[in-house]
Design goal:
The structure is a single chain. Helices cover 68% and strands 2% of the residues. By secondary structure, it is mainly alpha-helical. Among the domains are: 1-86, Leucine-rich Repeat Variant (Alpha Horseshoe); 181-244, no CATH class. Strands 1-2 form a two-stranded antiparallel ribbon. Helix 1 runs antiparallel to helix 2 and helix 2 (33-46) packs parallel to helix 4 (66-83).
Length: 244
Amino acid sequence: MGWKEFVERHKKRRAERQVERNEKRLMNKWQPSPERKRAIDVLYEIGSEAAVESLLKRFTYSTEGSIVDEDEKSMVYERLLALHEVTVEPLKRFIKREEAVYWPLKALVRAADEDTAVATLLEAIRAIPESYGTDLKRKEQLVSNLREFRRDDVFDALIECLADSAEEIRFLAVDGVLVFPEDRAMPHLVARLADPEETSRVKMQILEMLVENKWKIDKKEKSKIAGNIPQNYFIGDTGAVLRR
């Protein structure tokens, strides 16, 4: 090994040790906030992908004080934005494997663009075949964040989620679908109302939003739905959903 290679190897190992040491500080939720903030700044100054991976881990836990917690996460977010392109791949990897995606997703929209962020989110959702255990919690967070985007590919993904085996995923998907235009959303919402296997909770969510939005059910669909909705709702002659 030549002298130049030796020096480079030494510098690399030194940086790795710095990352490890400061990640440990950052992940200690019991020490004072200024110590964690100092670790955030050191990792930012290192600026490598490994340092970004360590910074992202701050999003995986919460401290007891909500103000302190929000302040530190906001600080990590700002440092990620300042690092620009180096954050993109670590952000994508994090979103695909972790539950706490709110801040990383915001950062990815800024560091790359909305197309990249949405594509990453959709890939993460579709990589979870069944909604059980920890995967269910992660999918809930992914779908919850998906609702923030108003796009055709997001609408299609939410429609897929309406058929998910987990009630909570369907509940979140309904909430997301309801922000799209009535003519697009209604056929899918009517299908959920007509399904005798759908839960009362999901149906009541749909019905309450139909009441609030004053969306009407086509007369041709009325007979499919009438016997499949909770008894405290009914469909009027005009197709409007009404509470008893």
